[in-house]
Inverse folding.
């Protein structure tokens, strides 16, 4: 079975977004919906779905041009076109009869090798296929995406007892490799995995909130990033999902599950929904956006007692404030043992989650790690419930549950009997019955340092060098936001030396953090500038340039594996690699102008070189160079950041030989393969000496344009200063004539000089201070 073309039936919010993700992956998609009798365009709903996806924020498409891969149609005129599709997925109304009627029609036209799937979030899969042929049932499997499909990693694959294992294998591999999803194989039970456990947690948190006298905003502080969970926490998540959806799912789960699984909604919550307060879709939920008299957005909080919205200001919870800046394990333990009503709430809520996850083991899924992954990938948790119990200590959790008078689920009863204190221990874990089994790491995790430190060759506080096997080393940064400082730079230098001294094939620079790198260590740079340590700063920038350019000018291949934020110095490191293997969700940009600087690690040089090389040979002289200079100036001067790796390629950050990988978790593995492909015939490059520049002519042209922008109020006084230094570097320096050619080192020296010049100015230091305090650029 191969999936080369897909069909999505149902062009609503979810169906259109799934079609967009298929198109993002380069898969042609047929998008069908019903015909509206009052619309002259019979494809109105499918077209509207694509338009909605194009306008969605956050963007559903990685590149708007990918929308061309979607063919729209309707279920009356175009049903036979399903015969060309390898995978047919429905995302229609959540009514069993409607789905059964659809499958009867699909079976008559689908080809005999097509995989058939439902995106239903609650209707059991086996009920949908009653009455269908044995062959159809064999090829049917649930495929439950989470919204928005581009950004939420989880896909629950739900086989019935009739589904052919080969169908599950084919769809799972396609989803993981081509669509970039994290696949969890769920059992065909109510709620499947993530919603069953996640909605239980939301409902129980509502109950405990009222019991302990907390507000929704206080609960969101307690159950958000401080606990290693998404910033939307509990009640913001409910607003995003829709309070009516939460109500509907909880009611259905309550009816379909045993009495001890308490999905009872509070009366306050029922009253909110009855009033039409449904979350973001209705304009208000537990929170409501409004604007003050100055037009500034304010967030009002719902008072559950009065039913009115209040400006509660910035809500601070003492237990959360006390753990700020601490590692996750310390935060979790401190919050779990906190005093007062906040601690009482957290213990009650967390114990509910622990008890329920253990009870669901073997019910919703057959592996503990699948439950953990479902909550991490579907709800944005850093740790799943079993991983969190490991952090606290399984035996301590068991004591607390027994102190509350709870009956232990079989898994926890077995853990108590054996005295085991962790569910994950190296390459061991447990079955739902509490028997030891081998931990099956997802095959894409190459360097799981939490579970195997034996592959670490050398370690610093902010970086590690890891042996990936087959003669390839990995430099893994693990500082906050992976800001680039001494540890990160020295780790790259050490790795280059190890490759040469020990005969390794080459090097990958990547990591498994939240982001590849947010750029240079600004606090350090600012403190040195304010102390006027100019010689030290000059040496630091030289070192940064040397390490950045060593990504290309070394005797062995070096491959960058960026993902997420790849900004400033992180972008410069990637630009100089022999190859880039980028996650599709890579946000690359040279953003230094936002803090009053220009790229100083070779980024300015590199973009000029690339854009000049792309000119026709006849253009690489005199004024004909200006388009390349202007393109580099606009990219850097506006701090343009790509919204995806596909856009990064358009902007020039990625080249034709670079690779885009849909699944972030496959990036290191594929970067390793790229090193091994380059290594046998690798020849060390040398620095270019033939880069044509325009000199004063380019400076004049750019400054003329800047003057007009300044007069029009589009740029500030200090923007002019920063832009002037950028223009000087991109022009090859003052005094050069229209036919000059310079070396890469010449441009690097100009970069370093401009970087130091700007760093010495008050305007730049003010911009850096403002960015560090507020996280936003200063327009001075």
């Amino acid at each position: 079975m191969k999936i080369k073309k897909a069909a999505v039936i149902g062009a609503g919010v979810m169906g259109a977004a799934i079609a967009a993700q298929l198109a993002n992956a380069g898969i042609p998609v047929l998008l069908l919906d019903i015909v509206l009798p009052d619309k002259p365009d019979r494809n109105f709903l499918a077209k509207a779905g694509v338009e909605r996806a194009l306008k969605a924020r956050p963007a559903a498409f990685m590149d708007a041009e990918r929308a061309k891969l979607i063919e729209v149609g309707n279920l009356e005129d175009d049903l036979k076109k399903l015969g060309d599709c390898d995978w047919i997925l429905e995302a229609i109304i959540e009514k069993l009869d409607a789905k059964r009627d659809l499958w009867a029609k699909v079976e008559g036209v689908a080809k005999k090798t097509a995989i058939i799937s439902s995106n239903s979030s609650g209707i059991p899969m086996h009920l949908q296929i009653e009455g269908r042929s044995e062959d159809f049932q064999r090829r049917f499997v649930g495929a439950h995406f989470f919204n928005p499909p581009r950004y939420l990693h989880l896909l629950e694959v739900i086989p019935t007892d009739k589904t052919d294992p080969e169908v599950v294998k084919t769809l799972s591999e396609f989803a993981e490799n081509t669509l970039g999803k994290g696949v969890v194989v769920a059992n065909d039970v109510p709620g499947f995995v993530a919603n069953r456990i996640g909605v239980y947690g939301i409902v129980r948190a509502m109950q405990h909130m009222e019991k302990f006298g907390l507000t929704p905003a206080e609960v969101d502080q307690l159950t958000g990033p401080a606990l290693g969970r998404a910033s939307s926490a509990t009640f913001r998540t409910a607003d995003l999902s829709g309070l009516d959806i939460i109500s509907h799912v909880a009611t259905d789960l309550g009816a379909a599950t045993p009495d001890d699984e308490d999905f009872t909604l509070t009366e306050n919550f029922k009253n909110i929904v009855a009033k039409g307060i449904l979350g973001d879709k209705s304009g208000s939920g537990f929170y409501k956006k409004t604007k003050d008299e100055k037009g500034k957005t304010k967030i009002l909080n719902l008072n559950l007692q009065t039913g009115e919205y209040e400006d509660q200001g910035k809500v601070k919870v003492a237990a959360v404030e006390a753990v700020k800046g601490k590692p996750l394990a310390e935060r979790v333990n401190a919050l779990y043992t906190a005093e007062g009503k906040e601690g009482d709430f957290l213990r009650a809520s967390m114990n509910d989650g622990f008890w329920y996850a253990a009870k669901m083991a073997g019910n919703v899924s057959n592996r503990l790690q699948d439950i953990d992954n479902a909550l991490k990938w579907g709800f944005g948790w850093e740790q799943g419930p079993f991983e969190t119990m490991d952090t606290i200590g399984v035996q301590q959790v068991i004591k607390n549950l027994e102190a509350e008078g709870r009956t232990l689920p079989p898994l926890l009863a077995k853990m108590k009997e054996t005295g085991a204190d962790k569910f994950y221990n190296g390459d061991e874990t447990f079955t739902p019955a509490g028997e030891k089994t081998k931990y099956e790491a997802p095959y894409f995790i190459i360097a799981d340092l939490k579970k195997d430190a034996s592959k670490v060759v050398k370690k610093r506080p902010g970086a590690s060098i890891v042996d990936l096997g087959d003669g390839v080393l990995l430099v893994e940064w693990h500082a906050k936001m992976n800001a680039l400082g001494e540890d990160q730079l020295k780790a790259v230098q050490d790795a280059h030396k190890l490759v040469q001294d020990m005969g390794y094939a080459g090097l990958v620079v990547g990591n498994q953090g939240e982001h590849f790198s947010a750029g240079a260590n600004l606090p350090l740079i600012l403190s040195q500038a304010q102390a006027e340590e100019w010689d030290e700063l000059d040496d630091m920038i030289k070192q940064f340039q040397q390490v950045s350019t060593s990504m290309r000018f070394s005797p062995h291949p070096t491959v960058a594996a960026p993902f997420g934020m790849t900004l400033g110095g992180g972008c410069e490191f990637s630009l100089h690699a022999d190859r880039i293997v980028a996650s599709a969700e890579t946000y690359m940009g040279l953003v230094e102008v936002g803090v009053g600087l220009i790229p100083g690690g070779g980024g300015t040089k590199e973009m000029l070189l690339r854009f000049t090389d792309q000119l026709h040979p006849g253009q690489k002289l005199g004024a004909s160079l200006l388009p390349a200079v202007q393109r580099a100036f606009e990219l850097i001067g506006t701090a343009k950041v790509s919204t995806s790796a596909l856009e990064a390629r358009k902007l020039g950050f990625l080249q034709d030989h670079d690779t885009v990988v849909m699944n972030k978790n496959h990036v290191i593995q594929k970067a390793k393969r790229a090193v091994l492909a380059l290594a046998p015939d690798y020849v060390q490059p040398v620095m270019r000496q033939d880069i044509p520049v325009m000199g004063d002519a380019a400076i004049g042209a750019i400054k003329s344009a800047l003057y007009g922008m300044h007069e029009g109020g589009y740029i500030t006084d200090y923007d002019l200063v920063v832009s002037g230094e950028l223009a000087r570097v991109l022009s090859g320096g003052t005094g050069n004539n229209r036919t000059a050619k310079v070396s890469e080192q010449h441009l690097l020296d100009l970069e370093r000089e401009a970087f130091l010049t700007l760093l010495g100015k008050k305007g730049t230091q003010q911009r850096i201070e403002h960015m560090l305090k507020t996280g936003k650029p200063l327009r001075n």
